[in-house]
Amino acid sequence: MRPYHSEEKYRITKRTVAILPCRDMTMQSRIILEDGSEIMTPLRPYQLLQLSCRQYSSSIEERIFVAKRVASVKGKVPVVIEPTSGLVFFPTKSPKRPDCEWYAWSHIRDISSDPLEPNGSVVTQDGHRIQTNATAYVLRNQLKATGELVARFQQLNQNALLES
User: Fold this and answer.
1) Which residues of 39-74 are buried (b: 16+ CB within 10 A; e: fewer)?
2) pTM of the shown model
3) Do the beta carbons of residue 106 and residue 88 sit within 8 Å?
4) Which residue has the higher pLDDT, 75 or 5?
């Protein structure tokens, strides 16, 4: 796990699988990449999402507003950071809560549960398993809602292309 220094700005990319809160004195987030490596950063998960939305010329508030309008999502709204590249993350809890975890929709292959564990796990496309702070039921609902949002964005993009 390599630390990410505060003067550097981590940009969420297609390689980002998860953004998890961290209970460290100096680091606030643990970022898991598709190869299983991890990066620690002093920014909280929500701050990382805000920063990444700004880097793509938007704001997280704008992205949440659009997601609510486009897909009629009410709570725990997924964030479409960059629609054309498929950078879409879904939260496990209310987004501003300090214990909210964020997962990249495109990297999730499955949701699993263990009868001995209260919370579910996400299984990534390459088989890594990440234990979450949400039940498998919540994770499945979030994955489904995010998939519907992505499909709606794709449909809107297709209609825009046909009309131009």
Assistant:
1) bbbbbbbbebbbebbeebebebeebbebbeebbebe
2) 0.90
3) yes
4) 75
